[in-house]
Specification:
With about 300 residues, the protein is α/β, with parallel strands linked by helices. The chain has a single domain, classed as Aldolase class I (TIM Barrel). The protein has 12 helices and 8 strands. It is globular and about 45 Å long.
């Protein structure tokens, strides 16, 4: 069900002015339409890149609902519904499933740093309370909590847990997980720069930040690999690496939002404690986008 280039969608917000920082619903609709036109294989609203940490629960769910409505079944919507509170994660997951999300993406609880046994109990509680497909999400640089391959293997047999987005920073983790789970368990890259290596290790796609600004190229890259055109995939990956690099020069989604604003796709809005991209990085990001035809 989940494969290819799946965009970790930014949440467009109003720029400076009376409505600064408010969700820009018209821009969200336009972004979704653009991704559908450009061949993006799936959309994740309210992941880390969507600034889920600074939208309140009502906003969070409204963005998911709007995304499901605008996508209208054309590609899978994997709603980010994780939280560091198990009860909040259950509430958001149940709501997203009611809205019609195809799956829900559940990040490991952040800040409270549960044990591995605590992670198992967390996901067991969510799986018991929620009927739809669930995708685990491991991103220890953001959460301070690393879900080991052994823990994934304990959670994976739950009947509605279908896969994992792995962003621990080690592409070999995909191999460690693959060797411990069923063949139909979905493995997705959560690190753009390491996606080629993860595809080689058995991943079926990526949940991508770079796809926000280069959706067609990211879709072509993953399509090429999955169809067996390894040379084309390697060539596209080489072109994409400089963009992967600079989109994390400051905390994501700061560079990505600045790039999309430069491309005329969104206003410049971003919520505190994040700020707009600092001036020293503007010229280099612009140059790299121009090299690949995004500007």
């Amino acid at each position: 069900m989940l494969r290819g280039s799946i965009v970790a969608l930014v949440t467009p917000m109003k720029g400076p002015g009376q409505a600064a920082g408010e969700v820009d619903w018209d821009a969200l609709d336009r972004l979704i339409a653009w991704h559908l036109e450009e061949g993006t294989h799936g959309i994740v609203p309210m992941g880390t890149t969507g600034e889920s940490a600074t939208l309140n629960v009502d906003e969070h769910l409204a963005v998911i609902k709007r995304t499901v409505e605008q996508v209208a079944g054309k590609v899978p919507v994997i709603a980010g519904t994780g939280a560091n509170s198990t009860s909040e994660a259950i509430h958001q997951t149940q709501a997203a499933q009611k809205f019609g999300a195809d799956a829900c993406l559940l990040v490991t609880p952040y800040y409270n740093r549960p044990t591995q046994a605590g992670l198992v109990a967390h996901y067991e509680a969510i799986a018991k309370a929620c009927n739809g497909p669930l995708v685990l999400y491991n991103v220890p640089p953001r959460t301070g909590c690393d879900m080991t391959a052994e823990t994934v293997a304990k959670i994976a047999p739950l009947p509605n847990v279908i896969g994992i987005k792995e962003a621990c920073g080690d592409p070999e983790r995909i191999t460690a997980i693959r060797d411990k789970v069923a063949d139909d368990f979905i493995l997705l890259s959560g690190e753009d720069a390491q996606t080629l290596r993860m595809l080689e290790q058995g991943a079926s796609g990526t949940i991508s930040v770079t796809a926000n600004v280069l959706p067609r190229m990211m879709a072509d890259f993953v399509d090429a690999y999955l169809s067996g055109d390894i040379a084309k995939a390697q060539a596209l990956d080489a072109k994409l690496q400089p963009i992967h690099d600079i989109l994390f020069v400051e905390s994501s989604p700061t560079p990505t939002k600045w790039a999309l604003h430069s491309m005329g796709k969104i206003e410049s809005g971003i919520r505190l404690p994040l700020l707009e991209l600092t001036a020293p990085h503007h010229a280099e990001l612009t140059a790299r986008l121009r090299t690949l035809g995004a500007l």
